[in-house]
Amino acid sequence: MQFTAFSGTSVGRDNPPAVAKEGPGPLPQGRYYSPVMKIARYIANLAITLLLGDLLARQLAATVYAKPGTIESIRRLLMNSGVLKPDSQYDINGMLLLVILVASIAVVGVAVWLLNIGVRRYRQTRSQ
């Protein structure tokens, strides 16, 4: 969203060489965001991260459960490493789904963060 605006007063109005003059000089060149826009960006990033993380988790879970014996292999691995006791009635399915969801959200969160850094650097180099 862009607005037509001016900066400075009298001789400093929209006069870039007068930026150093306190009072009548214009604001230095740059981007100025309102707090509402910053909060909106955070909310959008969070929503994108959660939505894409959920979609990735669903795909991974479908892949894991589509292969026969995957859950039993994970159960045997946990028993052999001593994490799970042989007579345990622990719900491995629920824990596995939770781990897949958390890992997917973390991976997508890192991707969104890196994308934001790239966009910010691109805008900085473009504005110079």
Characteristic terms for this protein:
transmembrane helix, membrane, 128 residues, 2 domains, transmembrane, 3 helices, mainly alpha
Task: Please tell me about this protein's structure.
- The chain has 128 residues and is mostly helical.
- The protein contains three helices and no strands.
- Helix 1 (35-66) crosses helix 3 (92-127).
Quick recap of the structure?
Keywords: Membrane, Transmembrane, Transmembrane helix. The chain is mostly helical and 128 residues long. It is 62% helix and 0% strand.
Give the tally of structural domains.
2
Biggest sheet features: none
Number of helices: 3
**Percent helix range:** 55-70%
Transmembrane segments: 39-57, 95-119
Region (Disordered): 1-26
Keywords: Membrane, Transmembrane, Transmembrane helix
Biased composition (Polar residues): 1-12
